[in-house]
Every structure is written in structure tokens, then in C-alpha cells.
Amino acid sequence: MKRPKIVNVHEAKTHLSRLLARVAAGDEVIIAKSGRPVARLLPFAPPGKRVLGMDAGRGYIAPDFDAPLPDDILDDFER
């Protein structure tokens, strides 16, 4: 694997289009401020296709979810 190119903030601002072209070609660019890495530019990977219902059965909603609150708890909200 190729080592990422490290550039300082000034160089990144000055040559952003050139750096984006490198990233689009598959390279990684690290932007550093005062010699410390602060950001990574990576090629964009669109999310995979979402499948309807892929989390079915993983959540739970109690049968009384929308039941009225008990009076003592409701009083606390209405103070």
C-alpha cells in the first residue's frame, strides 16, 4: 500500500484541486497543522444499497408505549 501524502494547511488550500485529483485516483492525503495530522482526505465510497427491513425484529416497542402516564409522573411534567 502506498504511503499517504502529508501536506500542511497552506499547501492544502493552495493546491486543493490537485490534491482532490490525487484522492479521486485512489490516493490518501493527510493535512497537518504545525506538523500534527488533523484531517484525512479519502476517496468517497458511496454507501451500499439499503435493504428494506434489514433490521426487522431487532427493536422492541412495549404494548403500552402510548398509554397515558400515571398521575404522579404526569404531575412532575406539569409543574
In short:
With 79 residues, the protein is an alpha+beta fold.
Task: Provide keyphrases for this structure.
79 residues, alpha+beta, YefM-like fold, three-stranded mixed beta sheet
Helix content: 25-40%
Distance linking N and C termini: 63 Å
Q: How much strand content do the residues show?
A: 15-25%
Task: State mean pLDDT (0 to 100 scale).
Answer: 92
Q: So what's the overall shape?
A: elongated
Radius of gyration: 25 Å
Structural class: alpha+beta
Per CATH, the architecture of the domain at 1-43 is 3-Layer(aba) Sandwich
Largest β-sheet summary: 3 strands, mixed
Number of helices: 3
Q: Which spans have pLDDT < 50 for at least 5 consecutive residues?
A: none
Number of strands: 3
| CATH class annotation of the domain at 1-43 | Alpha Beta
Enumerate the strands of the largest sheet in spatial order, edge to edge or round the barrel: 1-2-3
Describe the secondary structure blueprint for this structure.
Layout: E1 5-8, H1 9-14, H2 16-24, E2 29-33, E3 36-41, H3 71-77
Parallel strand pairs: 1-2
Antiparallel strand pairs: 2-3
Describe the protein's architecture and organization.
The protein has a domain at 1-43: YefM-like domain (YefM-like fold). Helix content is 28%, strand content 19%. It is built from 3 helices and 3 strands; from the N terminus they run βααββα. The chain has a 3-stranded mixed β-sheet. Strand 2 (29-33) and strand 3 (36-41) form a beta hairpin.
